[in-house]
Amino acid sequence: MGPNHGRFLTKSLAALRDVETDAPRAGEWWSACGVGSSLNAAVVRMVATIVAAWTALAQDHAMPGMAHTGMDAHSDMNSAGMFLMRQSSGTAMQPEAWPMPMLVNRTGSWNLMWMGQTFVTSTQQSGPRGGDKVYSSNWGMLGAVRKVGSGSLMLRTMLSLDPATMTGRRYPLLFQTGETAFGVPLVDAQHPHDFVMELSVQYAHSLGEKGTWNVYYAPAGDPAMGPVAYPHRASAMELPQAALGHHWQDSTHIANNVLTAGLSYGRVQVEASGFHGREPNEGRWNIDWGAMDSFSGRVSFFPTKNWTGQVSAARLQDPEASHPGSVVRTTASVTHVRPAAANNYWATTLLWGQNYKQGEGGRSNAVLAETLVPFGRRNFVTGRFEWSQRDELFEYDHELSERITSSTGRRAFPVTAFTAGYTRDFPLFSNVQAGFGANVSLYAIDSVLRPFYGEHPVGVNMFLRFRLKQHLP
Predict the structure, then answer these.
(1) CA torsion 38→44→49→54, rounded to 10°?
(2) Phi, psi of 350 (to 5 degrees)
(3) Is 88 helix (H, G, I), strand (E, B) or coil?
(4) For 281-317, what is each residue's pLDDT tens digit?
(5) For the chain, how many structural domains are there in total?
(6) Which structural domain, as residue segments, surrounds residue 409?
(7) Residue 396 is part of a domain; what is its CATH number?
(8) Alpha-carbon distance 83 to 214, whole Å?
(9) Is 40 among the domain residues?
(10) Residue 432 lies in a domain
(11) Alpha carbons 191 and 177: distance in angstroms, whole number
(12) Which of 12, 79, 114, 264 has a CA-to-CA distance to 2 between 20 and 30 Å?
């Protein structure tokens, strides 16, 4: 075993000892949420092991004196490399002023970016179709960038243990639809992410002082469609649950056989992608290879360092296994970040998505307004408003679906969701942002849905959150 491996193991063990010292405080809070002590200990130890090992590995070759975003630590990088390091989800970008939470270091000629996030959540969803569960949603990313000629190359992989930390291939989420579990369409539940969320290679090259062209290929990755996906979006950083409009707005963030070409000049970027349109199947541990049968285009705008906007459209070939048929998806969004106290940022996103099912000829829409407001250094308040036309709430029962459609003359029913949440950070160990929080969702629903969901459906989530982030004194 070499000296680097020895240092890694030493740091991992030291970090675990630190976690076990602080775990009782988190455990007391978690027990108050109704989670048994044995499960509490197992969950805390599992999360501690993952986070500690990832942090120790990221710090093993850490550069001294790094800034919290890591961008100015790479003064040797060319403009194409800086362009690549701004990307958050596939080739989508947050506002430039937002300091992405990451650790950065250098090994040889490679500049490394480490990002990771874990939520351990206890959810309670009310009513006849609700449920409760303790689960973890998580992901870790490593990006490596280096100069190649007068351009730059980036290799990136993103992995998730969702398939192991979400039992039953789902977690309860009222009014959510999309994909399947055990061959049955998921309704009132959210699916886990694939183990391989992204595996990509990308090359970028400058065109004068204001332009950049780039090519991105990913066996598993994110085509040029929609905004930055919700697990990485600045305004959604303190929400463990998916947005209800996920399958109208950003569900293509895990696609297969993705090829994207892009050209940016000044404050505008134009991209086009080809990819396999079928959403991931229930085999979450593999890569679902398929023909490049779908395509998309996106135009992004960056008017200032604090603003981004995008308009995109895609034709998706048979995205859902449970009901074949192509979908034309259109989205538009704008995101704004504003500096706040203690090096935090206030982030807000407005997002619209529409699905047009070509076989059925029906259109449905989903709208989202989302904000994350920091107070001081350790307090965060989240708000999310959603309105969507739910057209798959009875997919699990074809006869019931047809009966409701026949009696009402409608296939889609409006649902409005109001979510408010709070997160409080607490010290754990260096370069990990740890916090505990909760959020509550209230729903306003069509009268047709009340016999199935009750008069006043409610969802409650209580969670622990761990995120890699450069420590600031």
Answers:
(1) 160
(2) -115, 130
(3) strand
(4) 888 999 998 999 999 999 999 999 999 999 999 999 9
(5) 1
(6) 61-468
(7) 2.40.160.10
(8) 10
(9) no
(10) yes
(11) 9
(12) 114
